[in-house]
Known about the structure:
This protein is mostly helical. 52% of the residues lie in helices and 8% in strands. It contains seven helices and three strands. The chain has helices at 2-8, 26-35, 41-45, 55-89, 122-139, 146-168, 192-209, and strands at residues 96-97, 103-110, 178-184. A three-stranded antiparallel β-sheet has the order 1-2-3. Helix 4 (55-89) packs parallel to helix 6 (146-168), helix 5 (122-139) packs antiparallel against helix 6 and helix 6 (146-168) runs antiparallel to helix 7 (192-209). The radius of gyration is 36 Å and the shape is elongated.
Amino acid sequence: MAEAERIIGTPDIPEASGPEPERSGPDADDTAAGASGGPSGDAEAREPGEGSGEDRPAARGRRRIAVLFAVAVVAYALDLISKMIVVAKLEHHEPIDVFGEWLRFNAIRNAGAAFGFGEAFTIIFTCIAAGVIVVIARLARKLYSLPWAIALGLLLGGALGNLTDRIFRSPGVFEGAVVDFIAPKGFAVFNLADSAIVCGGILIVLLSFRGLDPDGTVHKD
């Protein structure tokens, strides 16, 4: 019997108090992290560079401000380039018919407000334009709405376009006459800056009727 047990052999039984075999690989790392109170799975699953919830509104606000200034730059550039072309090619020349008598390009100098109103208050309109620019710049800090960014961008670009004429064109600083050239039949002559201001104002009115604020909140009442 002893010889048979020697040949067959007996299974090794680990001692209860003996050390566990050492593990290696990912499972061992996970086990060690769990035992030592390491970071949770949610923290490890967060992507690198992902901001917290408080950073997301700030990033969205910066994007809306970028849209505002991009729209303003485009509106201002179109107005400035069109006025340069009109002064160089159209001023002191016969009007150009675009759609017969319904729409003409006719260069004039306007010392008043948009569409030729209030020519005796040039300095006042210059101050108003400057004030509008300051208000828009301050409002941009609370801007989180894309439609409002577009509307304010149109207002800013139009105000800058006409303010540039007020400052740099004759007869003098802050008294300069604005270059107008778009002349529909039976309507006042205006320019692209006036168009941007009107479009921005209409969009603001529509947004206000819908209850949308510049900060993105919506009022249902």
